[in-house]
Structures are given as C-alpha cells and as structure tokens.
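Narrative progress, year one. The postdoctoral researcher (J.K.) led the effort to move from monomer predictions toward full complexes, under supervision of the PI. The following entry was the first complex the group processed end to end, covering 829 residues in total.
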Amino acid sequence: MTEHAIRVDNLSKKYGPVVAVDQINFQVAPGELVGFLGPNGAGKTTTMRILTTFLPATSGVAAVCGFDVMNDSMKVRENIGYLPESVPLYPEMRVEEYLTYRAKLKNVDRSVRRSRVEASLEKCRVKEVRRRLLGTLSKGYRQRVGLADAMIADPKVLILDEPTSGLDPIQIRQTLDTIKALAGTHTILLSTHILPEVEAICDRVIIISRGTLRWDGRLSRLAEQVPMVVMEVRGPGEEVRKLIEGQAGVKKVDGRSLDDAITGFEIEQEKGKDLREALARSVMERGWSVRRLDLRRKNLEALYTDVVLSRDQA
Amino acid sequence: MSTETFTAGPETAPSALSEDQASVARTIGLTGLTAVVLGTLILILNAANAKLGIEIGNNVGFAGIVIGMAMMFYHATRDTDQLIRRLYGYVGGIGLPISGLILSLLPVIISWSKAAPADGSPKPIISLFFPFGWACFLAGLFFLIPFCRNETEEKQRRYGLQAMGIIGALLALVGLGGGLIASSFALTYGSVMALLGLAFLVAYIGQLGGADLEGYRPALALGALGLVVFLIALIRSLVAADTPYFVPAGLLMMTIGAIYAIVAAFLVSDQTLMVLTRRELSAYFYSPVAYLVLLMTALVAGIAYIFFYYGLQRERPEPIVTNYLGDLFSVVTVTFIVPALTMRLVSEEKRTGTYEVLMCAPVGEVPVVLSKLLGSFIFFMLTWSIWAVFLLALRADQEKMFEYRPLLSYYLAVAASGLNFLAMGVFFSCMTRSQMVAAVLTFAGMLFWLFIFFAAQLIPQGSVWKAVCTHLNYINLWWDALGGRLHLRDIVIQLSLAAFWCFLSVKVLEARRWS
C-alpha cells in the first residue's frame, strides 16, 4: 500500500516491562496535515522516533512513503524532516553554517543548496540571526532553526514534535501559518499539547493515551455532529426534567442542580432539529423562567477530555 | 491582529547565561603573558650578551614563550569581555604577524645595505624568519581564529577575516613563487611559508563559513594554486638543466602543491564523511578542551626540551632526537591527551540529543564513526607537531645540524598507534552518555597499554608472552622508530587494532536500531 505517506500497523514499543506504545494503527495520506495529540507520556514521541527510524519497534510495522522503517531506514530518512522535542543543536556553530551542514548531510545538491538555505531561513524567520552562534539563541529561535533544518531538504514527510513549544503567541501563529502553507504538498505529522493550535490548522486528529490509539477522525466531522442544547431553568428540577423528556425530538437529558433553584440541562436532540424555541416555550408556559439557552457543538477540547478521561476511568 | 500586518522585531538579548568574569581564564592568560615577557627578555638579554649571574640558555626563553602563548590562546578563546577579545585580536592577531614580517625582512635589508666583506666573499644575508618570524605568524593565526569566531560586530569581524586572507595569500604566494624559482629558498623558507600560508587560508575559508557559503571560490582558488604549483614544479623538474631541480626541491614543491590541492578538495568535498569530519575538526577548535590539550602538550614538550637541551652540552651520538622524544615525557602526554580528545566525541552527542538529529539524516553509522576518528586523528597529529616546533627552535638557535630523518619514521609510528588509541577512545565514547565515564574508560585503556610495556620488560626471556607484549606495546615501536627502525608488522598490528575498535564502535551504534 504505497499510497499512504505514513502507515502504522499494530505498532508496539516496550521499554523493558513498560509498554510505551501498544498496538496502534493509523494511516496518513500524502499531503495530509495530522495533529497528533495525547497527554504527556502517552507515547507520541516514541511513535515519532520509530517513524524517524531512530528507535526500533518491538512489534508491528511502520512505513514512510512506502519504505519500511526497519529495512529501508536510509530511504525513510531521505524522505523525512524531523523536529525533535528539545531541538538539540551544536552550540558552537552559526545558524547559517548549521543549516548548510545539514543540507549537505541530507544530500541537497550544491546547485540548489544555497537557495534552499535561504528559503528555509526566510520561511522560518531566522534570517536576522543567521550569523549568530546556536548556543546563544533564545528558545524561540532554537525552535525555528530546528524547523528550518527539518524542511531544508524539502522532504515529503515532516514529523514535528511540539514545534510551537517555547514560542510567544505571535511566533506561534507565524509558525502555524508556515506549517499550514506546507500542507497539501507535504505530509505533516504534528504533535502538541495546545488544542486551539490543532483546531486552527489540522483537520485530521489522532489522539493517543497510555500508548493506545483513542480517537482518529476529522474535526470537520465533529462539527457535523448534532449540537446539544444547553439550558438553565429556575424551577423544580425533577418536574422540569420530565417536561423536557416528554418533548418530541429529545433523545437524552442530563440534568444537574446548579444553584438553590436552578437546574442545568444538557439535551441531546435528534438530527436536523433545533428544539431551542420549543423547549423555551413549554418551560415558560409552566411559569418557570429560563436563565440560559444555548447550542453547544462538540469541540476538540471536549472531545479530548472525553477521550482521555473516560477511557482512563474505564 | 493578523500576522501580515505585525512584524516582530528581531530578538536581541540571548537567553543563554554566561559568566560575567572569566576569572580562571584571565589568571591563565596573565600567567601566560608573564611567561612570554620573561621568555622574550631572556632572548633579548642573551642576544645582547648581557652578563647575568646565572646562565640561562635561549631555549628556556623559547620554552617560556611557547608555553605562555598556549596559555594566552586559551584565554583568548574563553574571555567573555568583548574588549579583551578585541585586544587579543588586534595585538595578537594583527600585531604579531606584522612584527613577524618586520623580523623577517628588516635583517635582510640591513645585511643587504652593508658593504660587502673585504675578502670578496658574497654578502651574508640574514633573516630572523627562523626562529622568530614564522612563530609570530603562527601565533597570530591562533589569535585571529577566536577573534573572528566570537566577534559580534560584522565590521570588526570583516577586518579580522581580511587580515587572515591577506596574510595567508602573501605567505603562500611568496613561499610557493620563491620556491619555484630558487631551490635553496624552497628548502628553507619557501616550504615553511607555503605551509603557514595554507594554515591561514584554511582558517580564512573556515571562518567565511566553509566552502559552501562564501568560502567556496577561495577554496577552489586554493586548489587551483596547488595544481599550478604542482605542474610548474613537474615541468621544471622534467626540463634538463645544469643543476638538477627534481631532488629535493622539485619533489618538495610538488608535495606542497599536492597538499594544497588535497586540502582544497577536503574543504569543498560533499562526501558525507568529509562533511562530518570538517565539523568534528572545527568543533575541536571551538572547545576549551582542545586548547587545554595544546597547552598541556606545550608544557610537557617544553620541559622535555629543556632537559634535552641541557643534556646536549655533552656529546651525544646521532640520532640525538632519541634523547628528546624517546623519553617517558611523550608517553605520559599521550596517556592523558587521548582520553581528553575522545571522551566528548559520541557521548556528548548522545547526551545533548544531537545524535538523534544526526541519525535522522540519511547518514550511516560507518561515516559517523570514521569521521570522529579522522577528526580526532588530525587534531592529535597537530598536538604532536608541537614537539617538532621545539626542534625547529633548536636548529635555528644553535645552527645545529642534527639527523632529522628518524623523525619521519617516528611520526609514522605515532600516527599508527595514535589511530589505535583514538579508535579505542571513540569506542568507549560510543558506549556511554557520560563524558567522564568515557574518559575514565579510555584512560584505563591507555594505562593498559603502558602496563604491556612494563610487562614486556619484566617477563623473562624466552617466554612467548614476552614476544607478544614486545610487539603489542607502542613504546617499543616508537623508540625503535626513533632509532630509524620502522617495523611494518608492528605498524600493521596497530592499524588492525584500530580497525577492530572501529568495527566494534559501528556495531555498538547499530545496536540501537535492533534493541
């Protein structure tokens, strides 16, 4: 199946008795931009290291651009750009010198090397520090030099481990813009802890927790899901609940008491309906008052919390 | 606010913390300055035939200068104050070469302008290029490199670079040109000038950002110059003349031309091994460890040289260099410098994580190991050349001719066993993430080699083990080489051990991909 840029089949990695990654499966099509989420220690970095051929898998198969990470390690490395989490750099080299050195190691031809280095410096906005020693750079610059290094050879697949950590809010936006511009022509696997970032640029999201894959889907699909009605009513909780449950089109009601006399409800409704007005009317008719009435779409944060927490409790 | 309309200003303050006062480095630097001043004083007083209460030879002065210089190099690389670094850059990096130029040329002009001797013999032309001029140039280079590296102001850096390039080009052109014209010049001044010029030019290209950035054309020019010199020397050797040119001057010039071309090829090569080796080598020049190693070697070699010099007051049979290098001084030095040079190589990369970045590029383990070995080997041979520097002083100061050919076989033997030791160090460095552990293991390895030497002495005659220990230990190999006997089989043993260590290192690194 060479049409996948990244393919992971039943991948497991054990560090002695500790299972870091447990039987995960996913595929990424060429040109896709995938957000790779999970709590600390979930196995994100381990999975990425296996994909970059730095670590061997305990079992299972991983392939990048159709090349097996174990048997065709050189071919895989020719096709990836990797930004490790802590961005290790040689402190005694200059930015420009380092990027040229990396370009040579990645077999960028001499005729285009200079222009590739310039393009990377430009894209990652590190031009103004091109002569600085890497050891004297701030965290934000180090991060961007690492990103420039990852994309210097114009690889088909980019694996970025927390590319925005340590950046200030404006740099984060600029870096995300850079990454987004690469999507389409490049396959990008991006890990991060900051959910709004993922929502801003990725459509596809993979969530892993404790080494197992918990959710793999598209945020656009999430948006297509039927929104919930959120309602807060002043009145006797049980009676209000019965009233709402009796309403046509209501699938499920969750209620909990907020104040002395106020009860909050989360109401799942049938597809294609908006029950807000009908609900309000019937509540008002009984003489109770409505404090809040709203539609809530499931967002990534809710999904993430659900996925990570619910399974943890299970 | 959209990112299009907002442009962040460049960051100015680096987050990295550095010491405000490099007090240790300054102490070392000041001590070095004192040593240089005292050494120079001794030379001047001796030259003026001052009658001192005690007799101090010029050689003590030389040793003082070399050791003091090494201390000052160390300080020049370490000081955090921009002004002090600039002071070193100006006084050391530009003042020293200029004084070298004056010392080399002024005596020539003075002796030229003097009247010819009455007996009609040719006028004696003297120059102080040996021993002072060339040493000034070399020392100047060592001050220019850290200056250009650490200078933050672009304009100042350019001045340093231009100085480096101009001095290098002048030395190379005069040395090579003169050497092609006159055989006698080639054999004395020409070759040393050409090699000095090469050192300057390589540093210049390196500081321009290597052969990929601005250094590419200069590097090509360097190679072209080497080829031209090689060809001219070849043609001149082939053309029949009254005095044969080929041996030794033609051969020497051809070798130097070839060295230029090879160095240029090394600089512009895109081969992974060469790219990695260049980085390893330049990392040495920016790390304090390397300067400490140079300093220590200079100290030990200086002490050994003083002992040797006083020993020379009595008549010694040739080769006299045995009394200098064939001593435990060099053995002790090598025992310490090998761990110092190799401990960092792989362990540091593993600790900081740069190893992961390196291995995620399409680079195999074999070039990585070989580049570490090759880089440390080139630096290792550089530290050994300090020993030879003192011998040049002897030759220049005493006008003393001595048998130098054993040095060639000696350096071959040192190179072979050096490869073995360094490969061992690389292996231990591959094993661990801690520099200290790597250093201790390598040091233990070096002590083991020393132990074999003593075992060879202690085991009674006739035992097989005596033969084994004699052939394995490097000290006997070195001392025999100093006597002019270079045993091929012992060299082969050292080289095959080096290959063995490399093989193990590669396997240790490859194990990561399977475990």
